[in-house]
Here is the input.
Amino acid sequence: MFSTESLRIAVSGLIANRLRSALTMLGILIGVGAVIILVAVGNGSSRTVQKRIESLGTNTLTVFRGSFGRGRGGRAFVGTQSRQSQLSLGDVTALQNKANAPDVASASPVVNATVTATYQGASYSPQAFVGTAPTYFTARAFTVAEGRFFDQSDYDSRARVVVLGQTVVGQLFGTQDPVGATVQVNGVNFAVIGVTAKKGSNGPQDQDDVALAPLTTVQDHLTGVGSLNQILVQAASRKQTTAAQDEVTSLLLARHRIADPTQADFSVLNQATLLQTSAATNRVFTVLLGAVAAISLLVGGIGVMNIMLVTVTERTREIGIRKAIGARRRDILSQFLIEAVLLCVAGGVAGVGAGLAGSHFKIVGVHPAVVPYSVALAFGVAVAVGLFFGIYPANRAASLRPIDALRYE
Amino acid sequence: MAAPPVISLSRVTKVYDAGRLSVHAVRGISLVIERGDYVAIMGSSGSGKTTLMNIIGCLDVATSGRYLLDGVDVRRLDDERLAAVRNRKIGFVFQSFNLIPRTTALHNVELPLIYAGQRGPERRRRASAALSTVGLGSRMHHLPSELSGGQQQRAAIARAIVTNPAIILADEPTGNLDSVSTQDVLGVFDQVNAEGRTVVLITHEPDVANHAKRVVQLRDGQVMEDVRQAPVDGLPPRHRARTQQGVA
Here is the structure.
């Protein structure tokens, strides 16, 4: 009785009320689908952050001009300061000195130029045109896709060479091979010597929309000699980033003759730490999204219970007949329980389908990454919800006294 | 015969508690029904006949007194055993047919066998045999909504006899039928009894009671009159051998 017959009776019960069954399933479908999609969105966004950490180089520090206004004493150095804050090549050299900063592996000067590059009529303004030293490539974890990166001799000889990111190549050259070509950058000829490997997008920032040239060349031809925009510091290892940050801070304070650290005219950003914090935030975010979705699953379950209660009331007379001809408590119980679980299983299967399909789309700028456990969990919870919310109505049906049930009109 | 009577009631009472008031529906009925008998229980409404029927059918439990069904005291049985008793020893026929909707006549008749745990082709064979007995062999795949009242009631009788129970209990089985269908259904009861099954039916129509071998009159929850119209061993008084098996 328990297996095939109960199943048959339950299925025919569901088919008898197609629309109602479908709507009830929809509740479960939405719940299960929402759990899968929202957890996938959360997971997708933490993966993006993870990638960002890796693409930045895991153990880098960035020194910026001015203060970010940390702490109470901090002030933004925007124009009102009498002395314009400076980061100089001297600072870079000091940081490169092992005696001063033993935990620093390299320090690369960075200047940013706003340029328009043209090639055979095509013209494009990269998001970042960076003048820097060869150590920058290692620190930022760039890899060569084609050609080569510029080296110390290019740097020293102020060679007019440039390394392009994939996006810039696409914009200027289309499918042509850029290596060996000459591009005009703000009217100055630069030889393209290399292309970086694709790094992908990093939130709103396309990391391939970049062009890199020796600092010396950029200062000669594009920006003029002035303050550096940033110094990119690479710590000797990931564990040494904090020590390196302390060394950089105290060294620069000393060089800039600032006694009070809260008055610093620069700030050191430990990006890995920042992004790890954001990854942790993301995890909380994922859990929250999952919880919201779980609530909708719960609501779907209550819908199942509601419908099962209606069904039991509607079929009270049928229950009476069944009992009169010899159905036992457990026959009636299993009939209605199976009906409830079937609703949830069908809704769950459809929900998994919808969730997996929905995860193929980009949602609020995030490519969802389906977490296998969330699929299993959502489906399992849907079935459990069916059992849990089916038990009360089924038990109510099974406990009806046959004469009361038969008298029911 | 040493076999115990199918039904043995002694001083059975049933009291319903309706708030402060208690209603004595059955006030001490003693009744013995032998195997093979055909009993009509008559009485006006409120005479306690339906209550008595529910007690006999194990749908309800007596407040006091003793009830032996096939020699077994049913008051000592738990829920599970009562279900088994209803399944194997009793076949119910109701006034309003009570077939399960959206389920074919055949499947309706199969249901008691399903609950008895019988499987496979044997179940189907027994169900279709029972339907043939009541003359519905050709309409077994129809839904209740596609059958006339008389046909529905005959399907219900087929469902009652399919487990080969000790008694067939019918509560006003012709109450919702026209005169032609009534004769039809009573003919089926006569035949079922002629085959040796015990039949107990409740009615308030003397015409229906005339088919029985014994008529019990109830009034105010007590037996007023108990008349035997034909011997237990013989054929029912109005029995005519069915010459045609088929749709009547």
The two ends of chain A are 28 Å apart (CA to CA). Residues 69-82 of chain A have pLDDT under 50 and may be disordered. Residues 4-52+277-407 of chain A form one domain. The first strand of chain A starts at residue 60 and ends at 65.
